[in-house]
Amino acid sequence: MAASLEEDDDQDSYYALLNVSKDASTEQVNAAYRRLCIIYHPDKHEDPERKTVAKRLFNRLKEAHSVLSDSEKRIIYDVYGKKGLEASWEVVAQTRTPSEIREEYERLQRRQEDERLQQATNPYGRTSVSINATDVFESYGDDYEAGVVEVSSISMNQQVDAPLTRKDTVTLSGTMVTKNGRGHGQVAVLLRHVVTPSRWFEFDVGAGTGLYFGGRMFMNLTRFTYGMAGLSFISTPAGLQPLVTANLTRRLGDHMNGSLTWKSGAESSMTSSIVRETENHHLALTLRLGIPDIHARLSYMYKYEQDMRVHVAAKAGFMGIAAEYGIDTKITTHSWVGATMVVGVPTGVKLKIKLELLCFNLCLHEMLVLSLG
Asked: In degrees rounded to 5, what are phi and psi of residue 74?
């Protein structure tokens, strides 16, 4: 009797479906197929429900027969089952033995894995330029002269995420910054290892103004809660200084999360935030208590379909207050342009212009930010 429609998709299912043994000859496979087609052909049934079931089974019979009656496909199926039949075979016509099929399959699997890892490599770059135009906004007077516009800072950052295996990813990054005539740079290497879908580790080492190294662990604590703990060491003239970081995030609703983050060190702080995000809305409230700044920030962004974003934000703290508003719009499939106006005390007025480019061939993410203030 042929196998039922609910049968598991295992290696013997085609044989069980045709009700033949694994060592059956091609003639026996053809005979079993013809016999079952007479029974399960859809035209043999008039009841609509039975006709539908017969049609499904008849299609499976044709699939099983097409594999078991072909000597090359049958060898692949016997060795690797249906999964092997889905591979992109190149030299099947020249291979005849199970050992040759196995070697070809493993070679193709390695090549496909290499291609997958190469496609997942994600370079990312960001360049920002700050232009100081304070003199331009000075009050007009009898002795008014045109103000001087100068570049106050330039920063460049580049990083590449490169998967090594399905569980290991390495990130290479570099940063160069020049501000008010002084500059510095930094290079770093980070390794991420996924232990399980709910737990992974990160280890990084870098050098710039000083050497630093450390690690972090991420873990799901409950169904709706996950935490992070990290320990790093930074080289200073006074010796190695430890830096401890801890984070706890809790899902508060279908579209809302709350988090609490603590950092130790020279600029220790405690930050709490609540974020609500839907398909078109993003609302975030953040409160930071730390050294040297204490502030609260509220931001909101609205997404117009897929090609425009409008955002506003307000910030108040011991270092001053500021409000901002802006818009980002999609100009091509892989490009965004945006502008943001920031008004604050004592920072004054700033205009930020952003150009974001995404190269679909290299997944190259480049960003240019101009700041007038």
From this structure: -65, -40
Question: What is the DSSP annotation of 183-243?
Answer: EEEEEEEEEEEEEETTEEEEEEEEESSSEEEEEEEEEE-SSSEEEEEEEEEEEETTEEEEE
Question: Is residue 354 within 8 Å of residue 338, measured between CB atoms?
Answer: yes
Give percent of the chain with pLDDT exceeding 70: 73
Q: Which long-range contacts (CB under 8 A, 24 or more apart) does 75-81 make?
A: 75/101, 76/101, 76/105, 77/11, 77/14, 78/11, 78/22, 79/105, 80/105, 81/10, 81/11
Summary mean pLDDT of the chain? 79
CA-CA distances (angstroms) from residue 102 to 92, 98, 107, 110?
A: 11, 6, 9, 12
* CA distance linking residue 239 with residue 293, whole number of Å: 26
Distance between CA 151 and CA 260 in Å, rounded? Answer: 37
Comparing CA positions, the residue from 127, 126, 136, 128 lying closest to residue 373 is 136
Return the structure tokens found at 41. Answer: 């052909």
In whole angstroms, give the CA distance from residue 158 to residue 176: 9
Question: What's the CA gap between 214 and 127, in Å, rounded?
Answer: 27
Distance of CA 368 to the CA centre of its chain: 22
pLDDT, tens digit, 9 for 90 and up, residues 87-142: 554 444 444 556 666 666 666 666 666 666 555 666 666 666 666 655 665 555 55
